[in-house]
Amino acid sequence: MRYQISGKQIEIGEALSTHVENELGETVGKYSQRPTDATVIFSRDAHEFQCDAVVHLSTGLTAQAKGHATDIYAAFEDSREKMDKQLRRYKRRLKDHHKERSEPVEFGAGGSYVLTGDEDEWQAGESGLQPMIIAEMEARVPVLSVGDAVMQMELAGTQLLVFRNEKHGGVNVVHRREDGNVGWIDPADLK
């Protein structure tokens, strides 16, 4: 597994890097024999350290966890425990996902834009005022089943996931609703 361990305005020593590689490798190794790479970023917020860990699995799924503590090692342990809990919760589904899928999850390219929320900065266009684009990036859109998309959203800890449905190739969305349930938007039924 490849590791990228860094700090935002924090020096990361060799001892911490070795600790992260050993502990994270052991945690992920229990649930997935083929992780591909891990990114761990440490930062500081006032008196507290933060640890953001992202692990990409060979099946194409991504697990993500954040930890906070007053000690940098404790922040990593908090993040590692959260990731362990996520992976343990989805262990059976991860193994089932791995057996059914001979190739990693396919990704397509899509545009991702950040729009200004300030109406004073909107541009006049053909159809009236339009928000100004302040950032333009490429986003990866996975090809998944609905169940795998929900699992990926849970593992990544996000509120929303855009994906292409394996059954019909259309763009779908799963999202976390305010009542705690998961919503699924499938515009393939729209005429």
Shape: globular
Mean pLDDT across every amino acid position = 79
Output the CATH class name of the largest domain: Alpha Beta
* Widest beta sheet: strand line-up: 5-8-9-10-11
Biggest β-sheet, characterized? 5 strands, mixed
Low-confidence stretches: none
The fourth-level CATH homologous superfamily of the largest domain is Ribosome hibernation promotion factor-like
Multimerization state: single chain
The percentage of residues in β strands lies in 35-45%
Number of helices: 4
> What is the CATH topology classification name of the largest domain?
Double Stranded RNA Binding Domain
Q: Please give the CATH architecture of the largest domain.
A: 2-Layer Sandwich
**Rg estimate, integer Å:** 19 Å
